[in-house]
From TrEMBL:
SUPFAM superfamilies: Protein kinase-like (PK-like). The lineage of its organism: Eukaryota, Viridiplantae, Streptophyta, Embryophyta, Tracheophyta. It comes from Gossypium raimondii (Peruvian cotton). This is Protein kinase domain-containing protein. It comes from the Eukaryota. GO terms for cellular component: nucleus.
């Protein structure tokens, strides 16, 4: 609201209106203070001030970039606003995310498994995306419950919803390249207590690295702990819910492959032929000879075969769970279960 707006506001309210000075003071309170960005290009703000005349900042709900919970004075409800850094690559990713979210919403049928975009705007070259307010992430959920593994029935509900969302995106030729517990949010704003959770409804967030299947995109597109074609990302998030930790906790390519072989068995010959640099003569991975440290070797040795890990952490549904995970984690994409095929797996029907 400008000074002219304040004058107009007093005219519209008639003889019982507040004084011009009161209206002007209100206008000044609702305006954004003018500040420079911080040295990393983040938007600088204080809690309690207005982001826009319509949105008042209530709290911080995200650490990557700036994700705020704001009170929408027009709709009288809380919303989540993601404020993107004023750096070109983040600006471009935000515009991709807006396009993807609008594309998903346009084709939506029935209940959505993805966060709903309400609006977007630009403040001083910061793209701001307004979302519905959701609850904590599955990562926060795990942390809140001291990283205890989720009950199998709860995992079943979470993963079925996750696969439905991925299958829907595949139908639209979209690839979500950053699926992980931090990007899967509970719909309920209340933290779920274990045991006896209140709601298992979840939604996906963060589509800034989503790509169309017919586009050329970088081979390095996701958080390394979950890096793979995204149907594998589903299963790795799946395992984190069951095992209370990321399966492949590594930041080095060779170690990552060694971990995969330890858990899933040797890579297929036809795939090895494409990557001779990291293999010795024959089909043996250059491990542990190529390890960068003793710690790396120990980290690989601590892992066990997938079926054994499932048996150690899961009492019921062990056979079907292990079988589903093995199907989702096949090395060869032509042999790997698709999201739609996985939805028909006996793991999801055995409890019905």
């Amino acid at each position: 609201m400008t000074e002219l707006d304040a004058k107009e506001a007093t005219k519209e309210e008639g003889p019982e209106a507040k004084s011009y000075l009161d209206a002007l003071a209100k206008a000044r309170r609702s305006s954004r203070p003018k500040r420079d960005d911080d040295h990393d290009g983040h938007y600088v703000f204080n809690l309690g001030e207005n982001l826009t005349p319509r949105s008042k900042i209530a709290s911080i709900v995200g650490t990557f970039g700036r994700v705020l919970e704001c009170w929408d004075c027009q709709t009288r409800e809380y919303v989540t606003i993601k404020i993107v850094r004023s750096i070109r690559k983040y600006h471009d990713a935000a515009m991709i995310e807006i396009d993807i979210l609008q594309h998903l919403a346009k084709n939506e049928k029935g209940t959505s498994g993805r966060v709903q975009i309400r609006n977007w705007f630009d403040i001083r070259n910061h793209i701001c995306i307004v979302f519905e307010k959701l609850g904590p992430s599955l990562f926060d959920f795990l942390k809140r419950n001291k990283y205890s593994p989720f009950p199998v029935d709860l995992v079943r509900e979470f993963v079925h919803q996750l696969l439905e969302s991925v299958a829907y995106m595949h139908d639209l030729l979209l690839i979500n390249t950053d699926l992980k517990p931090e990007n899967i949010l509970l719909v309920s704003s209340e933290y779920v207590k274990l045991p006896g959770w209140k709601s298992s409804a979840i939604k996906l967030i963060d589509f800034g690295t989503t790509a169309f299947d017919n586009q050329n995109h970088s081979s390095i597109v996701s958080t390394r702990h979950y890096r793979a074609p995204e149907i594998i990302l589903v299963s790795l998030a799946f395992l984190q819910m069951n095992l209370s930790g990321a399966l492949f906790q590594t930041h080095e390519n060779l170690e990552h492959l060694a971990m995969m072989e330890m858990v899933l068995g040797p890579l297929p010959e036809h795939m090895i032929r494409r990557a001779r640099k990291i293999f010795r003569s024959g089909s043996r991975l250059n491990w542990p000879e190529g390890a960068v440290s003793r710690e790396s070797i120990r980290a690989v040795k601590k892992l066990d075969r997938l079926k054994n890990m499932v048996s150690q952490h899961v009492e019921s549904s062990r056979y079907f769970l292990a079988d589903l995970l093995e199907g989702l984690l096949k090395y060869d994409p032509s042999e790997r279960l698709t999201a739609r095929q996985a939805l028909n797996h006996p793991f999801f029907s055995e409890s019905k």
